[in-house]
Amino acid sequence: MAEKTYSCADFLSLRDQAIALPGVHIEAGRHIWIFGAGNFGRSLATAMQAQGIVVEGFVETSPGVTSVLDLPVLNWSQLASEHPQAQLALGIFNRDTPYDELLGLVAGAGFAPPLMPWMLYEQFSQALGWRFWLGARSFLLEAMDRIASVADALADQESRKILYRMCAFRLGLDMEYSSFLSNETRYINELTLPALQGRDITYVDCGAYDGDSYEELIAQPQISCKQAFLLEPDPQNFARLVSQVALKQTHAVCLPIAAAETYSILTFNAGQGEACSISLEGAGTSIAAVALDQLLPCMPVDLIKLDVEGAEAQVLRGAEQIIRRSHPVLIVSLYHNPQDLWALPELLFDLCPNYRFYIRQHSPNTFESVLYAVPNQ
């Protein structure tokens, strides 16, 4: 049987299906149990309490503590025994466990499906703040025409299918996609390797973390990386990066700065591991940020990787001259903001008129979704 072709009409039908779903608003005084007592679950509990909702406690499969926020933490058997009719809200939002597995735990314990994060975000968005791709469903629905246009410009059917299913998942219409992973390895794979092999390349890594992506690159026998510029503004991550690069004894240059649209001093949420990000509230560590066009004004660049916790669009605008001059392969994270699904491809379509564009999925729950932009040979 031929594989389904995802058309503009298919994307727009998602909008009709999602609009038909009932909205969710939790009234003050309603009693809720939260599945998950981690960072997101605690933030959700606090946001609910601020609106007069009665948060009875948390449930976890294997609780490590007996209370969080002065509320009890029960396991599934305790909750089923003491509160068999409990209304659950899912307080887990990460890439660690696919949502379809988490929903299986809920069903296996005998409870009705929980309220999902995308059902809750619109009501509690002000308190929850930025949460990667999480946004109001209405925001995604309003962009479906633009997303359909993006899909038409992608280079292969697999990319269109992934984009379609990402949208369906975030609208609550395709829970199975939560566990989907692309066959390709992350970053250096069948999409990017042909454009990089057989020559010495210059690599720029924005959001280098501890050098893991650089290590994956130089481990490729088909690639000769003659020089690399590794940007990492977080002090703890930078220390690990320098240590790892020293062990490899390569010629990489480690830079304790962030990439941006232009030179500036920014406030940064440090000490969050891979999730360090620019602070919008003005609290945090002051860091220097620079446009790649300013950092490398005349140098040819062959490969740029961007994983900068939501600042991808600004960094791309700050690298416009490099992109137009050198035509590098671009690897761009696509999951940090709700609008990244359409805004980042649209930006790259303008910056890279003679490129092929692909989307692949590398972690559960639509985290680690990546836009690959590869110049035509």
Overall shape: it is globular
Mean pLDDT: 93
The CATH architecture of the domain at 181-333 is 3-Layer(aba) Sandwich
> How much strand content do the residues show?
15-25%
> Assembly type of the shown chains?
single chain
- The total beta strand count reads 16
What kind of sheet is the major sheet? 7 strands, mixed
List the keywords.
Rossmann fold, 20% strand, 16 strands, 37% helix, alpha/beta, 7-stranded mixed sheet, 15 helices
Structure description:
By secondary structure, the chain is an alpha/beta fold. Helix 2 (39-50) links the parallel strand 1 (31-35) and strand 2 (54-59). It has 15 helices and 16 strands. Helix 1 (8-20) packs antiparallel against helix 7 and helix 7 (144-153) crosses helix 15. Among the domains are: 31-114, Rossmann fold (3-Layer(aba) Sandwich), CATH 3.40.50; 181-333, Rossmann fold (3-Layer(aba) Sandwich), CATH 3.40.50.150. Helix content is 37%, strand content 20%.
Brief description of this entry?
The protein is α/β, with parallel strands linked by helices. Among the domains are: 31-114, 3-Layer(aba) Sandwich (Rossmann fold), CATH 3.40.50; 181-333, Rossmann fold. The chain is 37% helix and 20% strand.
